[in-house]
Amino acid sequence: MSTQVPVETSDYAHPEKLVSTEWVQEHKSNPNVVVLESNEDTLL
Questions:
Q1: How far is CA 33 from each of CA 11, 29, 40, rounded to the nearest angstrom?
Q2: How far apart are CA 40 and CA 3, in angstroms?
Q3: Over the stretch 6-36, which tens digit does the pLDDT of each residue have?
């Protein structure tokens, strides 16, 4: 799942886990793919 992501990744603990929206679009029908959103802002 190594996909180039055009964002600054130095602040992420595991930047290798990031994928592009294009990758998600291509793999959204795969039952083995889980999309997870995480936000450190506890007020959201």
A1: 24, 8, 23
A2: 24
A3: 566 667 788 888 888 999 999 999 999 998 8
Domain count across the chain: 1
Higher pLDDT, 39 or 31: 31
Range of the domain at 6: 1-44
Q: pTM surpassing 0.85?
A: no
Q: What would the DSSP string read from start to end of 2-37?
A: -----S--TT-S-GGG---HHHHHHHTT-TT-----
Lookup result for tokens 């290798």:
16
